[in-house]
Write a structure and sequence with these properties.
Oligomer: heterotrimer
Number of helices of chain C: 7
Strand content of chain C: 15-25%
Chains: A mainly alpha (203), B mainly alpha (204), C alpha+beta (244)
Order of helices and strands of chain A: HHHHHHHEEHH
Number of strands of chain C: 8
Structural class of chain C: alpha+beta
Largest sheet of chain A: 2 strands, antiparallel
Order of helices and strands of chain C: HHHEEHEEEEHHEEH
Radius of gyration of chain C: 21 Å
Largest sheet of chain C: 6 strands, antiparallel
Strand content of chain A: under 5%
Number of strands of chain A: 2
Strand order of the largest sheet of chain A: 1-2
Chain lengths: 203, 204, 244
């Protein structure tokens, strides 16, 4: 039992990583990785949303009629994200954060990872393992996001978290800031990952 | 003619994949061969064609600021646009459920090869994105919204079939083992994306 | 209970819809006033930044209550104008009853359609006049506030905002102070068309009404340029009239 739980938590970080292995959550990893700060905010949000949605859907799993299963899952996810957005908008200190996040809100609701894990895991497993699975997948996603954002911010603006790291004479590489580069970077990360773990290589 | 320029624009200039990078997950995962790519592409076109006009009407008569005027003047101030996400997604999810049931019954081999990516059409950012863009672009009629849906769907379809064709050819090339499959697909799409940037900003 | 029966499905969906709708409606209702207060303070911060009351960083560090107080202390008057440029209404500037025209989208629609408009002008005690602008960026709307010197032609400052432009590219119109500082001291040439130019390499020609577009943010810059010119044109009669 303990081994199974351990697998549930560790698997999504590397071997079953949602972005590089399951190919989920790609859209957002292109859009929000221009700066490390944005990537971190998005990663934390996805960890929270995936964990909680998996938990709630697992609680409801025996009551959901099969015919409306997708709608119910989505409504649960959308409702939670909207609630968080509304609460952040109302707080005086959190309003500014919400304005930054509002770009991402839509990307979080439609993030394939959230729904992908509900369909693949939460609907067939108990609530606590589902919660852990959701959190772990969010973390695996976050890891890749931070790696991509690290390179994109460093090479694209010469900064990290807004602090100038490269000398001012560095001319920012504008190609790095555009989405296609993120795809190429992801391809390279997959290359490195699979060279290290040969079992993931495709025939 | 307006419709034609809107149609051409939504296929190439506003291509969901290459201009806005929406709908990437299913795009990358299901483009291994042309046959399945074809099936998913057609499913996406179908869902877009059905959901966009419904969402357009919902937006016009329920969600927009002042949209509820037809219920009575006292409702003219109501702005329900914060419900846009949830309503649009509910409509899309309903149609995807429908498509899933049809495909499972009549095209079982396609159902098996699409796997989890069939229900994932419901969260396909491209489909929700199309509805949200439609909201912003403020089309004059349902007809325009439908033309936009057709164009966006065909754009996505062309993109995924093109990638599938390239990937099928690539499978015969001498690619290093760690890069085979998913890895090289990512890099290919990145290059295709750069190529498509020539369309950006074209006024039609 | 057969979870797949039609009756159950219908009851379940209805229940979910009712629960979710009520929860969201309740939250929206309860939080509405707080959200609007935040939105109002945000608008005031942007206007006062454009009018050079204080630097943007300072304004953003102040609380909502302080912002309201600062506005009440530095504003002289605010009024609305119609399509002919003549004042046709006033906006309260008393603390606690500050009135703003912050729903810019319908006004933008009206300007583009040539229909009747109600455009605001905020006059600060320093003599500076602040007007809003609004338009379509790449992914969503862009808007902002431009402050004019009392002569009605020289720009004293500007602040821009957006809903969903690309972070690191189009978002620079808001995030980078060097962009808005470019507008300080520029002139709007009312007699020319376009009256103002936010275009690629426009500054190289040395014109007084030109600012360079942002590299890599072509579409956002284009959208902002259009927003500026459409709204400047709507205010032309008002500012030109004042010159005489």
């Amino acid at each position: 039992m303990a081994q199974k739980l351990k697998d549930t938590i560790l698997n999504p970080i590397l071997k079953g990583n949602p972005i590089t292995v399951l190919v989920l959550g790609i859209c957002s990893s292109l859009a929000v990785t221009v700066q490390l700060k944005g990537a971190l905010v998005m990663a934390l949000s996805v960890i929270a949303v995936t964990g909680l949605s998996s938990f709630v859907c697992s609680l409801l799993r025996n009551t959901i009629p099969n015919r409306v299963r997708i709608i119910v899952q989505l409504v649960v996810v959308a409702m939670m994200v909207i609630l968080v957005d509304q609460i952040l908008k109302a707080g005086e200190g959190t309003y500014a954060i919400d304005k930054q996040l509002s770009v991402y809100i839509g990307l979080i609701i439609t993030n394939c990872i959230v729904m992908g894990r509900i369909e693949a895991f939460a609907l067939g497993n108990k609530p606590i393992p589902s919660l852990l699975d959701g959190l772990a997948n969010g973390a695996g996603y976050g890891l890749i996001l931070v790696i991509v954002a690290f390179f994109r911010e460093l090479l694209g603006s010469g900064t990290l978290f807004g602090f100038q790291v490269l000398p001012a004479s560095y001319v920012p590489n504008n190609l790095v800031i555009l989405p296609p580069f993120a795809l190429i970077l992801l391809g390279c990360i997959i290359w490195a990952h699979r060279a290290y773990d040969k079992s993931l290589q495709e025939k | 003619m307006e419709y034609i320029s809107l149609f051409v624009k939504s296929i190439f200039v506003d291509n969901m994949i290459f201009a806005y990078f929406l709908g990437m997950c299913s795009y990358l995962a299901v483009s291994k061969n042309v046959k399945t790519a074809n099936g998913l592409g057609l499913a996406v076109i179908f869902v877009l064609l059905c959901t966009l006009p419904i969402n357009y009407l919902l937006n016009k008569f329920v969600l927009q600021a002042g949209a509820l005027r037809w219920l009575g003047e006292s409702f003219a101030d109501v702005d329900l646009s914060f419900l846009s996400f949830i309503l649009f997604i509910a409509v899309i999810a309903a149609f995807v459920q429908l498509v899933e049931m049809i495909v499972e019954k009549y095209l079982p081999s396609l159902y098996a090869s699409l796997g989890i990516f069939l229900p994932l059409i419901a969260v396909n950012c491209a489909i929700l994105g199309a509805s949200l863009f439609m909201q912003q672009k403020e089309f004059a009629s349902v007809g325009e919204a439908e033309v936009y849906a057709l164009g966006s769907g065909i754009g996505w379809y062309l993109a995924i079939v093109a990638l599938a064709a390239i990937r099928e050819k690539l499978s015969y090339s001498n690619i290093p083992a760690p890069l085979k499959g998913t890895g090289i697909a990512f890099i290919t799409v990145g290059l295709m994306g750069m190529a498509f940037m020539i369309f950006m900003g074209i006024q039609l | 209970m057969n979870t797949n029966s039609n009756v159950y499905t219908v009851i379940y969906t209805t229940l979910i819809v009712v629960v979710v709708a009520s929860l969201l409606a309740f939250v929206a209702m309860k939080l509405g006033p707080a959200q609007q207060a935040n939105a109002k303070a945000e608008t005031l911060r942007q206007m006062m930044s454009a009018a050079q009351i204080k630097p943007a960083e300072e304004l953003y560090a102040m609380s909502n209550a302080d912002i309201l107080q600062l506005y009440a202390d530095t504003i002289a008057e605010a009024y609305t104008i119609g399509a002919d440029g003549q004042p046709n209404g006033s906006l309260s500037v008393e603390k606690g009853k500050i009135e703003l025209i912050d729903k810019l989208k319908p006004q933008n629609k009206a300007i583009l359609a040539g229909a009747a408009v109600t455009l605001p002008v905020y006059v600060f005690q320093s003599g500076m006049k602040v007007i809003p602008i609004y338009g379509a960026g790449l992914w969503g709307p862009v808007w902002g506030y431009v402050a004019f010197q009392p002569d009605g032609r020289t720009i004293a400052g500007a602040f821009f905002d957006h809903e969903s432009e690309t972070p690191g590219l189009g978002a620079k119109i808001k995030d980078e102070s060097w962009f808005r500082e470019k507008f300080v001291g520029k002139t709007v040439l009312w007699s020319e068309s376009p009256a103002f130019r936010l275009e690629k390499n426009a500054e190289a020609e040395g014109s007084v009404n030109a600012v360079d577009a942002i590299t890599g943010a072509t579409m956002t810059s284009k959208g902002l340029n259009e927003a500026l010119n459409v709204w400047f044109k709507a205010y032309e009669k008002h500012f030109n009239r004042e010159e005489e």
